[in-house]
Task: structure prediction
Amino acid sequence: MNPENLISRKKFLYQAGMLGVAAAVASITGEAKNLMQDGKKIRVGLIGCGSVSTKYLPHLSKSPYVQLVSTCDIIPERAKKAAEQYNIPNHYPSIEKMLAGAPFDLLVVTTDMQEHGRLNKIAIQAGKHVWSEKPLANTYKEGKELVDLARQKKVRVWGAPVVVNSPQFAFMAKAINQGKLGKVAAAHAHYGHLGPTWSAFFYEKLGGSMPDLGVYNMASLTGLLGPAKSVVAMLNVITPTRKVDNRPNPIKVEAEDNAMVLMEHASGALSHVQCGFNYFDPYGHGGDGQDKPTISIWGTEGNMHLIGYDWAPFGVDMATFESEEKTIRYAEDTGSYVWEEGASVIAKSLATGVEPLVNVDHSLHVLEIIEAARRSQEEGRRITLQSTFKWPMIT
Result:
């Protein structure tokens, strides 16, 4: 038998088992009672027709669980153009007009990050499910209030990123939980480039490299090593002014463009996230051709390295005593995973009642880490966290 086929069969059986567990969880949770059953298509409205939407809309348009109903943007021409391109029947210039227009079930939010909390709250108050690009809100308090409000309104809210959906994450989580690395002691993750040029919001207050870039690594490391107990960080601005496409003159950089964040996990492991907008990277913002480790984890009996960025991974290198200390490449099959799949995955969940792996408690925890890192820089001390999430995510 071809070894590659054997690996694929094991992966299939594992994923099938996970779906069975998820379905059982969905059948007993009170929150699941509002999910739409019987394979109905979920009516989707998307707000924010900028760069991120150009990835989301093609993916959503191909989903058998999605009916694209409307687009919305404060620049009406962008909403109209997106609607015409994907044969979407309605487009609106504001969320208020969108909510008063054609009915829909799920709002997909891909606007400037500073607007996420406000828009998510308006949608939840109107009784809509929400999939939000990262971050879910501007502060942990605002995010927690959104989740509490959603439960009161009997709707659901979820937040990007979806790094936990990749087959590479599944392989790494399973290896750790099976003790392949022994006692995990430390981990490092990094992601950076020279910074986005298409909008000022990345550099304005409550923007920054952490909610744009570091958020991926924070989600991966907490998903693999468990919730963080405390955070210590150093943040600063390396490039004080920037020229961006949607401003006539250079802008002042207000949010961190350089970050080092140290996390203490409940498991005892220490991990480090490095992210910024000042990194020369031959792979660029898109990461095409990235074939080097971006996440590394060390334990007493082995080490493991994610190859490629965690939002676009394609392999895991692992060396253990069991492998006679030789580094072997695993999990080279990327499957169908792409970073922009979040809203499509949620539409499928709403249509079938099967709980997704990505969950809002994890998103809230990562949001608190970002806020704690900023407090640590301001106050010069370690910040204790209060949030948590169910872990391990994959057993």
